[in-house]
């Protein structure tokens, strides 16, 4: 762990953030809103100035912005962040409009157009939706617009919610093939303990899991507007860096310096190779809805020969998934060997399990999990 070590702070990670052409920047609710839930226009403008400046220098930036729920509180005369989903959604419906308008106005000062992209978990888990989202991002960036992303809170249910935008930002970074991810927060860095309790030391550089052993990442403020606290930021940073994307976590007020290789925040070096964005989602990001247990031959076929999973190789399944869901493929001893998008509802499978394709009615002869929709995890 590199603690308070300014000389090495201009690490490779900081250089990669500083020179990234395509960059995802995430900003949290507490950095954009006043204590009472109104949008803090001055801070929003300051952030927009930094993003617009980087765009003007040839950068392609995607801004993942929280703040919809927080921005909806004051207009709806809500004293604090609601706990129930329906009121959160109502607040998000009101607040997202205000947020988008504020960004459009603020980027307008730089003659820069914004495009709002509201995503649900389905949009990144389901293949057709995923490609659709990817295409939209590509086109917005090609047209020199700044995509402003948030979770589509008004329609997301508890079960399918990302819940925190840190994770969403890591996922979007993969989706767009970003060169780096910057997480901006109300805290200026990762500390070895919650800095509110005093005596905590800033971590300047995380090179791998061993640097995090001593770190206690806790919640945000109980009365705060943010959701995930440092724990969700850390999880997102690990997610992105393990799949080849360097991450810088810094204070929103330090955004300009963070993007300019200064010794601010915490830099997370990449710890793994870059996967194709879609394979990353499938293998690590998408929430699995169920399990399919394979016999030994099917495990071999899927993991060694990279074949599709056919009904003949299935032993049993859980009963809770639908066609299009991501499921875990497990071996006889329940070890997860792969994940993939299943082509059938669980309720359709008992009739098919263990039968060869030629024995099945024509409408059931397609693969249970197609090889293109499958990521081997061994
Ligand atoms: N180890 C830690 N290092 C830094 N901050 C921490 C740590 N543990 C808990 N926190 C708290 O997490 C908060 C950031 O989370 P949150 O308020 O959800 O941010 P945001 O709104 O930017 O997403 C900080 O204000 C800080 O008090
Ligand atoms: N989609 C929610 C964001 C929730 C969230 O992740 O907030 P934060 O922890 O402040 O990044 C909103 O816009 O209010």
Automatic annotation (TrEMBL):
Pathway linked to the protein: Amino-acid biosynthesis; L-proline biosynthesis; L-glutamate 5-semialdehyde from L-glutamate: step 1/2
Keyword match Cytoplasm: yes
Enzyme class, spelled out: transferase
EC number: 2.7.2.11
Binding site for ATP: 26, 185-186, 227-233
Domain PUA: residue ranges: 290-369
Principal subcellular localization: cytoplasm
GO molecular function: ATP binding; glutamate 5-kinase activity; RNA binding
Claim: Membrane is one of the keywords in the record: no
Residues binding substrate, per UniProt: 66, 153, 165
Localization (cell): Cytoplasm
Reactions this protein catalyses: L-glutamate + ATP = L-glutamyl 5-phosphate + ADP
UniProtKB keywords: Amino-acid biosynthesis, ATP-binding, Cytoplasm, Kinase, Nucleotide-binding, Proline biosynthesis, Transferase
UniProt cross-references to InterPro entries, sorted A to Z: AceGlu_kinase-like_sf, Asp/Glu/Uridylate_kinase, G5K_ProB, Glu/AcGlu_kinase, Glu_5kinase, Glu_5kinase/COase_Synthase, Glutamate_5-kinase_CS, PUA
Domain of life: Bacteria
CDD domains: AAK_G5K_ProB, PUA_G5K
GO cellular component: cytosol
Pfam families, per database record: AA_kinase, PUA
GO BP field: L-proline biosynthetic process
SMART domains recorded: PUA
PROSITE patterns in UniProt: GLUTAMATE_5_KINASE (PS00902), PUA (PS50890)
PANTHER family listed in its UniProt record: GLUTAMATE 5-KINASE, ISOPENTENYL PHOSPHATE KINASE
Protein's job: Catalyzes the transfer of a phosphate group to glutamate to form L-glutamate 5-phosphate.
Record family assignment: Belongs to the glutamate 5-kinase family.
Descriptive protein name: Glutamate 5-kinase
Organism name: Actinoalloteichus hymeniacidonis
Lineage: Bacteria, Bacillati, Actinomycetota, Actinomycetes, Pseudonocardiales
Protein's gene: proB
């Amino acid at each position: 762990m590199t603690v308070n070590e300014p000389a090495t702070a201009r690490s490779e990670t900081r250089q990669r953030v500083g020179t990234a052409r395509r960059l995802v920047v995430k900003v949290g609710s507490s950095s954009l809103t006043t204590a009472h839930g109104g949008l803090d226009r001055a801070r929003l403008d300051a952030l927009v100035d930094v993003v617009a400046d980087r765009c003007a220098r040839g950068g392609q930036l995607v801004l993942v912005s929280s703040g919809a729920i927080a921005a909806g509180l004051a207009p709806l005369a809500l004293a604090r962040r609601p706990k129930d989903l329906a009121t959160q959604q109502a607040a998000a419906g009101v607040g997202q409009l205000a947020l988008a308008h504020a960004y459009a106005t603020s980027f307008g000062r730089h003659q820069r157009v914004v495009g709002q992209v509201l995503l649900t978990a389905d949009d990144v888990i389901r293949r057709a939706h995923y490609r659709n989202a990817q295409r939209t991002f590509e086109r917005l960036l090609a047209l020199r617009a700044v995509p402003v992303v948030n979770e589509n809170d008004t329609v997301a249910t508890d079960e399918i919610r990302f819940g925190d935008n840190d994770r969403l930002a890591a996922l979007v970074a993969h989706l767009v093939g970003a060169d780096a991810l910057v997480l901006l927060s109300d805290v200026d860095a990762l500390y070895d303990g919650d800095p509110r309790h005093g005596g905590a030391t800033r971590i300047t550089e995380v090179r791998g899991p061993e640097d995090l052993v001593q770190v206690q990442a806790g919640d945000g403020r109980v009365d705060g507007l943010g959701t995930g606290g440092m724990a969700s930021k850390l999880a997102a940073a690990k997610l992105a860096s393990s799949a080849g994307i360097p991450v810088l976590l810094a204070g929103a007020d330090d955004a300009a310096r963070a993007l300019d290789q200064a010794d601010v925040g915490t830099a997370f070096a990449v710890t793994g190779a870059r996967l194709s964005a879609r394979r990353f989602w499938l293998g690590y990001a998408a929430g699995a809805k169920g399990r399919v247990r394979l016999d030994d031959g099917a495990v071999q076929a899927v993991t060694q020969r990279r074949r599709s999973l056919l009904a003949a190789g299935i032993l049993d399944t859980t009963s809770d998934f639908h066609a299009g869901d991501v499921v875990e493929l497990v071996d006889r001893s329940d070890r997860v060997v792969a994940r993939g998008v299943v082509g059938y509802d669980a309720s359709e499978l008992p009739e098919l399990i263990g039968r060869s394709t030629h024995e099945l009615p024509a409408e059931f002869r397609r693969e249970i999990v197609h090889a293109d929709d499958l990521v081997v995890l061994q």
